């Protein structure tokens, strides 16, 4: 019986882990492929942002009921801090997300011609922005994303889950439109880091990563202490009723 229980647990963990791997790989392929042929003018930025949002919709629709379809280490960290998954599952998710992002980006490079692979999905902030401004913008945009996920996980939002994938996709599109030309607005360490690792320049996105991780750790605390009510235990004054319902 114990052996069977361990097999079920391992199977459950593997299914969720592989779901995050697949979700992040698919997300990287779709979102980065959409920007491979677009110029960075207004029309190109609009198309890239819409594709980014629709990629979120696709991933959440396919894998959301399996693992939650985080496809983002910041989302997973926030999920753990809010108590929805354990720390061991958090590290498993993050490892699978980074591995899935690398696998998806590698597949994308194989599917594109050599001329299109140059600079694909590379995040570059505006030269006119200071380091503080870059961190602040990325922190703000990622905070909006984490707030949306926190609202999704809250039990009070149970009656507002219709078309949630479309609404999350619209939110990601809006955030990318707002900050895409400023910092890249990836709001996702896996999406920001992996292309830079393939191109050998991970130091260039340390400010964006710092802002994203800051949001991942701070926003769950704000949600917990500012937006989650503290329920007091039920007080039953009548001794007869209290003994009837509270005694074993």
From TrEMBL:
- Name its species: Drosophila mojavensis (Fruit fly)
Query: What parts of the sequence cross the membrane?
Result: 12-34, 46-69, 75-96, 132-153
Q: Which InterPro entries match?
A: Aquaporin-like, Aquaporin_transptr, MIP
The protein here is known as Aquaporin
How would you describe this protein's topology in the membrane? Multi-pass membrane protein
Q: Its domain of life?
A: Eukaryota
Where found? Answer: Membrane
Task: Please indicate if the UniProt record lists Membrane as a keyword.
Answer: yes
Family, according to the entry, reads as follows: Belongs to the MIP/aquaporin (TC 1.A.8) family.
The UniProt record lists the keyword Cytoplasm: no
Q: Name one GO molecular function term.
A: channel activity
Provide the taxonomic classification: Eukaryota, Metazoa, Ecdysozoa, Arthropoda, Hexapoda
GO CC term, one of those recorded? plasma membrane
Per the record, a Pfam family? MIP
Which PANTHER family does this UniProt record tie to the protein? AQUAPORIN TRANSPORTER, ENTOMOGLYCEROPORIN 1-RELATED
Q: Which UniProt keywords apply?
A: Membrane, Transmembrane, Transmembrane helix, Transport
């Amino acid at each position: 019986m114990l052996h069977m229980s361990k097999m079920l647990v391992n199977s459950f963990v593997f299914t969720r882990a592989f779901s995050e791997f697949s979700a992040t790989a698919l997300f990287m392929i779709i979102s980065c492929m959409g920007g491979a042929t677009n110029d960075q003018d207004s029309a190109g930025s609009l198309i890239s942002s819409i594709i980014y949002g629709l990629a979120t919709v696709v991933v959440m629709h396919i894998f959301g009921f399996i693992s939650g379809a985080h496809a983002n280490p910041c989302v997973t960290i926030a999920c753990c801090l809010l108590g929805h998954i354990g720390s061991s599952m958090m590290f498993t998710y993050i490892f699978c997300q980074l591995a899935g992002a690398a696998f998806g980006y590698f597949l994308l490079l194989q599917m594109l011609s050599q001329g299109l692979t140059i600079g694909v999905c590379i995040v570059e902030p505006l030269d006119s922005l200071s380091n503080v401004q870059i961190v602040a913008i990325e922190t703000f945009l990622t905070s909006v994303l984490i707030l949306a996920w926190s609202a999704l996980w809250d039990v009070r939002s149970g009656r507002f889950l219709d078309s949630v994938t479309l609404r999350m996709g619209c939110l990601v599109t809006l955030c990318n439109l707002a900050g895409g030309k400023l910092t890249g607005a990836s709001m996702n360490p896996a999406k920001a880091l992996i292309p830079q690792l393939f191109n050998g320049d991970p130091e260039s996105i340390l400010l964006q990563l710092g802002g994203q991780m800051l949001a991942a750790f701070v926003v769950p605390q704000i949600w917990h202490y500012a937006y989650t009510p503290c329920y007091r235990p039920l007080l039953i004054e009548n001794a007869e009723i209290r003994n009837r319902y509270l005694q074993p």
